[in-house]
Amino acid sequence: MVIILLLSLCIATKNYEVYGSMPNLYKSEDLALDEHLKALNKAPIKTIHTEYGRIVDCIDINKQLAFDHPQLRNHKIQLKSSIQDTKPEAMKRDKSTRYSNFGLNEKDSCPNGTIPIQRTTKEDLIRANNFGTLAQFDRGSHFAGLVMKHRIFFGIVGTINVYNPPVGDDQMSSAYIWLSSGVINSSMPNYVVIHAGWQVYPGMSGDNLTHFFISWENSIQHTGCTNMLCPGFVQTSQSIFIGAPVKNVSIYGGAQYSMSLNLTQDPNTKNWWLKAQDMDVGYFPAALFSNKLNFAMRVGWTGHTKVFVGGTSPQMGSGHIPDRNPRHSSYISKLYYKDRFRDDHIPLKDSVRVYADNPNCYNANYYGYVDNILQHAMMFGGPGGNCGL
Fold this sequence. Notes:
Structural class: mainly beta
């Protein structure tokens, strides 16, 4: 297995480009891809053909890819988080908000003791080479969002407005919550970081749909990936699967749909649990982060675009600069961060920093309390264009 993982790292450094067709590969490269696929795709108990043309396999929860990670070989799976929701009843998920659907339909359920995993293809592996790590403030990336000023955090919560911005094959547009520890923007990076949200990125998914995604990186050990392309994230959900297409998205001036996300450290196991739409999806085990993520030093809510080969940048969110109107501007609402007791706190305006690296293309604004539905919200987005690199 160690040899297979080393082969996969070698493949990841190759400069392949594929969006709709397979490139010509050397026989050794093709064989290495096949070996990597065998490691990633576990024997299914049930196979589901989704409406989007992708295959989802129901895998024994105890035989999932995460446990191929050297530091998780003897890991005892945590089936349910022990985190208590501390928000007052009035602040919990309300019936007036439309929530996006992603994951399996009720008729396509996985058997008890199994979890749904989207089957990885050879094209997926080659496309994944083009995906820049979200933690890197690298060439072609633009950001607009909100970050908490320095302190110690044990979780972050946000409900992200979901759009499907038009994106070319060499572009990406996303929105997510994140937390990190260490130094990211440095000549000698020493950090760990987790992201969760939605993205439109044909170079990763092979289509122009909006997808639920996660990513993580441990720069100390040079490990991490997007979605389930490497061992790490432990999935527990029987319905939501990582990389799932989002079935309903917002329309400018019309119906708005949202994705509720919660990323919090379990006080007992120190694992970082991810909830989506108020359901446990799974967790990032503490062992992944070399004891460098016992708490987060930074948390934030972000819109992000990227162009890979020059040219214009895509639109972010709805494609409109924030104007306080939630039917116009993309937003992340119900903002909370968690203290060491895992209690929820609303970000105060003097405790956050609003940032946008190119206000002519994208911007962000923190409005504080907006109304009973959005509660405390940040709005972000913009049309993109010639934003510079």
